[in-house]
Amino acid sequence: MTKIDFYNLPEDGSDKRLPFSCRLVEKIHALGHRVFVHAASREQAEDIDRMLWTRNQESFVPHALCGSDLADRSPVLIGHDADPPEPCDVLVNLTLEVPVFFSRFQRVAEIVDGDAAARERSRANYRFYKERGYPLDVHRV
Questions:
Q1: Which of 10, 93, 107, 141 is most buried, by the most CB atoms less than 10 A from its CB?
Q2: pTM
């Protein structure tokens, strides 16, 4: 059964979702997992792509946008408007909705920022998973 992890970021008003997501993707990849990052928009997918290229001078996370020439060979895929290709182990969800395909993954990481409306939506997602019996864990970052 899919395990769901919620990562609650500080409520300081700054947007730390994308930088935190890049660090999380780097860690998950280092553990040998294949990752799908589900972005909320094409712009956000491109932002994550850029950040992964420039984030850390000491290491590189091989990644690609879905549909690109490198997507078939990349252990980290970034998409926004389509189901992820098979197989991927971990879903990093950057949308405010529960993706219909979430149960295809071993783990789901829900990133919760400090915005009040986003937190309320994340609470609804938490209830969704809990009511269906998925194992949940909350991490305060």
A1: 93
A2: 0.94
